[in-house]
Amino acid sequence: MSSTETTAVDKGEKRSNFTGRIGYVMAAAGSAIGLGNIWRFPYLAAKYGGAVFLIVYLISVYTFGYVLIMSETVIGRKTKKSPVSAFRHFGNTKAHSFGGWINAIIPMLIAPYYSVIGGWVLYYLFSYIQGEVKELGGDNAFTNFISSGTSVEFWFLVFAVCTIAVIFFGVQNGVERVSKVLLPLLVVLSVIVCIYSCTRPGAVEGIKYFFIPQMQNVSWMTFVTAIGQMFYSLSCAMGILITYGSYMKRDVSIEKSTTQVEFFDTLIAVLAGLMIIPAVFAFNGADAAKTLKAGPSLMFITMPKVFGNMGFGMAIGIVFFLLVFLAALTSSISLMESAVSTFQDELGMSRPIATLTYSGIYIVLGTLSSLGFNVLGGVKLLGMDFLDFFDFITNSVMMPIAAIAICLLVLRSVTLKGVEDEVTYDGAPFKRKKVYNFVIKYLCIVFLVIILVSSVLNAFGIIKM
């Protein structure tokens, strides 16, 4: 059965497709390039050894990341189904069902709280457009904003509407078309901010800090965290790449597409490091290293302070938060698309009905996260507010388990020969076959277990990452 004849719900409807390799690569790369690259990568690189972290991260992307992207794409294209049905295609056991559902549920839980953060980005973007440079750089600006329930909820809903609107238009006219515009624009804006940041007085020390090994900050957690960042950054084990793989035509090279996704992800991660680390050094000087290690506050507290004390602060603030918004939007689109595809496949819904149905869940869960710092601040789950809880349960617990399920599915049901047959369909090459087979057979599951255990222990304060 051809890709245009395969259906998600076996009702005779044609399953949507990307128009070709560029459409898939733009959508998959847009999914991979998100807040994890622009916000999380720079502070982790600064905290865990600079160039050492960068090298471990790059090795991880081109080994573990390569294997996970290839595996999910193969599963999706081979079955032409979203995660639950894709797993069941290879066996109708409880294990197959569990593997499919955990991959399907993850994006349903991530999209709402991710969109809350996307709303924060939108608020900062529009505030810079209005010229509030000094106000945003104030000591309590961010705290005052997230403490305002009405304002946070409003910007979350604005961001949510942007995401939902794209999904309504479908795979080609929505997801693919928007990705083809936003991803190149994101790269261009990243280069502009990067050039500006790296040419500030004192920025050279930040460049050195990023590209020279900082051995005093290296520990075994450097390796665990770098591998974990790869996992977080590439949109693996979220059901997204299975869903996007199901939209890929059979004449598109899976390996070539994967290589291009790896390239875009790596490019933006490195550019993000060059955008943020030199800028912080230019502003903070001797205290820059300590400031960079502060973590999540970097984007919404540190960078506005930097922009407020730099020439052209308003303009660079607009460009910076515009590119962060584009990165967040492309990722939220992919998360919601995976969720909607599951609703279509498992409940037999049309795209409009599936989109509306999930949108209700999306807005309810997102509202819990947006109000968790103010109106619902007294409600805690495992001692965490709603946003932190959803982030912990998905990223630290569910995603490593979902990735293990994918690896086991490939090894036991799809088989390495089945992967090779799908990758080499129509004569396409499988250049890194030996790397793929070795990593998935001997390394992936071991390292995924290490990431899972380390993340959980870190969340409960037993170890510090």
Automatic annotation (TrEMBL):
UniProt entry keywords in alphabetical sequence: Membrane, Symport, Transmembrane, Transmembrane helix, Transport
Does the entry feature the keyword Transmembrane, yes or no? yes
- Full protein name: Transporter
Q: Which residues cross the membrane?
A: 21-39, 51-71, 98-125, 145-169, 181-198, 218-242, 263-286, 306-335, 356-377, 389-411, 439-463
Decide whether keyword Transmembrane helix is in the record.
yes
Q: Which family does it belong to?
A: Belongs to the sodium:neurotransmitter symporter (SNF) (TC 2.A.22) family.
State the compartments where it is located.
Membrane
Domain of life, per UniProt, equals Bacteria
Q: Cite the PROSITE patterns for this sequence.
A: NA_NEUROTRAN_SYMP_1, NA_NEUROTRAN_SYMP_3
UniProt-listed NCBIfam families: Na_transp
Question: Which species is this record about?
Answer: Pseudoscardovia suis
The family database entries (InterPro entries) matched by this protein are listed as: Na/ntran_symport (IPR000175), SNS_sf (IPR037272), YocR/YhdH-like (IPR047218)
Task: Provide a Gene Ontology MF annotation, just one.
Answer: symporter activity
Signal peptide start and end residues: none
UniProt cross-references to Pfam families, sorted A to Z: SNF
Q: How does it sit in the membrane?
A: Multi-pass membrane protein
Q: Which GO terms describe its cellular component?
A: membrane
